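Shipment paperwork, digital attachment
Item: protein structure file
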Amino acid sequence: MNAVAVGALPDGTPVIVSGGKDATVRVWRLAGGTRVGHPLRGHTHSVPNGHKIAFESNRGGYVCAVWVMNANGGAVKRLTDPNLEANSPDWSPDGTRILFGTNCDRPRSQIWVMNADGGSPHPLTHMPPHGDAPTASYSPDGHKIVLLTNLNQLIHPTLCCWDLYVMNPDGTHLHLITTQDAGVTSADWGPRTR
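Attachment content:
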């Protein structure tokens, strides 16, 4: 097991969420230990109001796609076209949009955004040949997006691997925020502090 968190379903039922090394997430009722819904494969995030969960899955025989479901495990729905090979969903703080990466098993991944119902999907990044941007995350106020990309390595081939960039939610003003051989493997904004 990789991670465990304690939480509650919208009806107040206490649950434990477990994440395995195989990238499978399971939700269990705290009282009695019975499973809630089906296991989920991949990166997951709960919508800010706690009623929906977005997740990446290979269910249905797809390489990967972004799906949503109710927090109780019901009403599962695929949101992305299977050809996008969508992965790593991240809800906007207001719950109206979902960021995701594309081409999970192919080169030249991009960051896309769509409405929370799957409508109006479109790219925010336009990576050059050999460019990749596999994951991104909204800032707590929704005014910025942090993303992982290899753009700096393309400009400076002697540098290794991945760096962090920040951009506006519409994809404009992309700029580097890490320095020299950062070797970053993932990124997520911290919670909003009061």
